[in-house]
Amino acid sequence: MPGASDGAPDGAAPVSLSGPERSVLVALRATEALPIEEDELASHSGIPLDQLRGSLQRLRAKHLVVVEEEHETTRRLTPRGERALEVGLPERRLLAALERQGGTLTLEGASTEGLDEEERSAAIGILRRRGWLEDGVPFRLRASAGAPPTLLPEEVVLKQVANGEEELDEAIVGALERRTLVRTERRSIKRWAPSDEGRRLPLAADGAEMLGALTPGLLASGGWKDRSFRPYDVRAPVPYLSGARPNRYAAWLEEFEELLVGLGFEQAEGPVLETEFWNDDVLFMPQDHPARSIHDSLSLAGITGKLPPADLLARVAAAHEGRPLPGEATPIGPGWGDHYDLAIAARPVLRSQTTSVSARFLARHPRPPFRMFSLDRNFRREEVDARHGIEFTQCEGILGGEGTTLRDLVGMFRALAEGIGIREMKIRPSYFPFTEPSIEGYVRHPRLGWIEIFPGGMLRPEVLRPLGVEVPVAAWGIGIGRLAMVALGVNDIRELFEDDLARLRGEEG
Amino acid sequence: MPQAILQRDRVWELLGGPLSDSALEEILSVSKAELDAQDRATLTVSATPDRLDLLTEGGLALYLAGATDRAKGLPPARVVEDAAESLAIDVDPSVRSVRPAISAVVVRAPTDRTLDEATLAEAVRFQELLHATVGRERRAASIGIYPLERLSPPFRYALEPTRGVRFVPLDGSDEVGADAFFRDHPHAARYGSLGWVDERCLTIRDDQGIVLSLPPILNSRTAGEARVGDRELLLESTGARERPVRESLGLLLVVFLSRGWSAAPVAIRSGSSRISDGRGVFSPRAIDLASATLRTLSGTSYPSGEVERRLARVRLGPRPHPGGWRVEVPPWRPDIQTEVDLCEDVILAEAIAPADGVVPPSATRGRRRPETVFRRGVAVDLLGLGFAAPYTSVLVSESAVRRVEGATPIRLANPPSAEFAFVRDRLLLSHLEVLARNTRHGYPQQFGEVGPVVVPEPGAESGATTRYHAGTMIARDAAGFADAAAVLDYLFRAVDVVTVREPCEIPGTIPGRAARVRVAGEAVAELGEIHPAILTAIGVPVPVAWAELDLSRLYPLLVGPDTGL
Fold this sequence. Notes:
The structure holds two protein chains of two kinds.
Chain A: E1 13-14, H1 19-30, E2 36-37, H2 38-45, H3 49-61, E3 65-77, H4 79-87, H5 90-100, E4 104-105, H6 107-112, H7 117-129, E5 139-140, H8 153-162, H9 170-178, E6 182-194, H10 196-200, H11 216-221, E7 232-233, H12 248-262, E8 266-267, E9 273-275, H13 276-279, E10 300-301, H14 310-321, H15 342-345, E11 348-350, H16 355-363, E12 370-379, E13 391-400, H17 406-419, E14 425-429, E15 435-445, E16 449-459, H18 461-464, E17 473-479, H19 480-488, H20 501-504
Parallel strand pairs in A: 8-12
Antiparallel strand pairs in A: 1-7, 2-6, 3-6, 4-5, 9-11, 12-13, 13-17, 14-15, 15-16, 16-17
Helix pairs in contact in A: 1-3, 4-8, 5-7
Chain B: E1 3-7, H1 8-15, H2 21-29, E2 33-38, E3 42-47, H3 57-67, E4 78-79, E5 88-91, E6 101-108, H4 117-132, E7 142-147, E8 155-161, E9 166-167, E10 176-177, H5 178-184, H6 186-191, E11 196-197, E12 200-205, E13 211-214, E14 218-219, E15 232-239, H7 242-257, E16 262-265, E17 267-270, E18 273-276, E19 285-290, H8 291-298, H9 306-313, E20 317-321, E21 324-329, H10 339-347, H11 370-384, E22 395-396, H12 398-402, E23 410-412, E24 422-423, H13 427-437, E25 445-456, E26 464-475, H14 481-495, E27 500-503, E28 509-519, E29 522-530, H15 532-538, E30 544-550, H16 551-559
Parallel strand pairs in B: 4-16, 5-8, 5-17
Antiparallel strand pairs in B: 1-3, 2-3, 6-15, 6-16, 7-15, 8-12, 9-10, 11-12, 12-13, 13-14, 17-18, 19-21, 20-21, 22-24, 23-24, 25-26, 26-30, 27-28, 28-29, 29-30
């Protein structure tokens, strides 16, 4: 744990002694019969007892003195106890009165026997509990009780206490204490001696000042020569330091980037805020696709977007409407059979898939062959749970060129899986509006079973041709957060957005 | 994925025999359908949105028959060629502005059978699934099923004044006027806007003027309720555009044609002209597949006859054609529109193993974006200075924005919750949240993050630009402006630039203790002491110094404009 003082020699405070502490330590070290009681040390050294006690405690905190502590117990009679010893215990006196009165005594009669009200009550209670007195008033000796003992146990203990004896019946002592006849006094006796450190601690000769901090001035002047340094209390608390560690999710993402870079992919980025043209239209997502509704995508208030360059817009619109691209005779396909709405195309939206980054990359007409990746944040209006977040990171990748086929994509999935240590994988058919064929790579998780990790496919002609790309392009969009959960042993995707400083500093698991 | 619960016995009956659980699971594991659950009576199946046909007992049985080599190619479909001329729907021009598209088809039971309970139940269930998917909640398409024997064709689809429309709603027993229907009925409340405009509503009537339905809302009970025992059904679909209308009907047909029912065309007419003879609804479409395209996408040269075998296995009708194949596609496969769609069926007709993939040798040089590398460098610098590294969300809460008086981040028009209501324009907004969530950990605290923010910019294509900021917070006794300035000074020294600090007012900071930093005249950083009102509100008991560097502005100043994305 941070904050422990051990092992912090450079930062430890010097052992600093006040004048009285120093005097007490000197006196202790000069004493032959050790350990020594405080009173005795006070009288030897002439240090006032109060001051001596304070200094000893402070020296003890600095580990310079040690103490042996002994507890002494003394029992004394209270004034009431002394009176009972002298005139008899109330119950003895009541018994005597009863005997005097022939075994019967009225309430008034008891009062005249010198018992006050408290004594009378106590005596009556004791005698009734012991079976010598019958219930009710007037008080009567119980006939069957026999003759009272000549000496009650309480009377024995009272005498023992008065004689200073130590072997006592503790139960009776307790009863007498409760009756405030006996008082127990406990005293702590402390005997002090210097500790090994206290003996070793250099104490400057009288009048010579020990050096504290080694200052540049002392170094320059040589003033440290022939003087001793005040030692440090190496156990003293030190300042609290916090380290910084790489964020584990960010670090893992970087590792994944390394893998892609190693496979020949170059990185691209795109804006977090897109128009629907780049987020959806250019990917041949129909403008009325459910994923584009306000229930699934996040739109913005108070800002307006603009349409892309007119020639690109015209080509994408033609693909959507099933018309030939400008300058061509036949359409790519039937399109979505709907009027392409420019107002929708210009609407700003928070990026829902990094495929828009791929589209922007392709729109620059990269020279084939090309490989591109993007690892960035996306946003969907999802129900938040352990596997779904509103904000999530996707790893987008494309590879294109003459001869790029679906087999390349499957091979790339395999390479990526193996790159992060996953060996077991299977491929299933899938569906995405912008790829055909579409597949999904599943990997086996030891606890979760088969989980879908690698969705991808070959980009459709309706995507590529409007962008002016003439070569086949394989594309994927990995939900990298889910993969990170597997790799980092995280059970809730929200934990990837880590902001707990104790955990970030590695102080909590 | 869309899901359906199918009757196991009905699937086996249509398949011609049962499959073991393991065989069924194995076949579906390489299909676009998935077996989510099963018991003795039912199979719970989900499918990708392009293969809704697999969510019917008939469609699944057709697929399984191909996969188990019990049948191949297009299923035999009987078409009634001598359809009566009167089987037509006359479309009134009034519908054009409201819901112009309509298609219809008649299905007839085999001579020895009538509509049974299971077929009717599946048709109604699948009709609702189509409404939710292809139909986009009836906006794009909605389907009606009617007993043709109790109707008098031709039919008329029109927009007519509600005051003249009376019918018995399918779920009612008394005749009501359309005015009352639109005012009171729950279906009208939900879908009314799709079939009503200016005191007029869409209707389909037969030749006797009997109302079949008020599309796309509800059928009439008297003329629009198909029942067990019916032999002839009229299926129609209306919508905003042709494609989903035609696709929804084509998909529904699989319920009937897979059970041996026949189809007859229903012409669509407008005035004296015929818009469609109605055959396109149920006739297989022919799509050509070039062998070169297949080779290009698959990376495989299939041996002779293999492509036909695979296509026939997935119940398509291939035949050789110059340069490739001509493939007949049934109406319940609207996912196949072009030759690349056919390629998918060829390639995925049988399982793909990871081993089938090849890792292509790289002819490209992998690299990170230089700007990203620069940003990483700054993040490493912050770590080196001992700043813990949180990873925070771009979306910030309503309360996070409200606490910084004067902050103007972009608001979400449809926030999912108050927790995710704004797009941050400064890391400051996120980092105050971090401070607020860490008050239990004691002080000193210091953390820094490099992350994206979104800043409104009217000239930008999406109305805003994405920038990357490096933000730091120092919370400790006596933290102050100089601490924040020292961090920035360190970072600027690392890239060897000359900076000028100028006083300014920044939301969230103490007036007079905030500054902007310029490099070559460009504002690239802000810093200041967080206002005590904020610290008090979030429970931070020590002063906090904040600095935020706009790396997206600084980077071009260091290397020139970035031409990349």
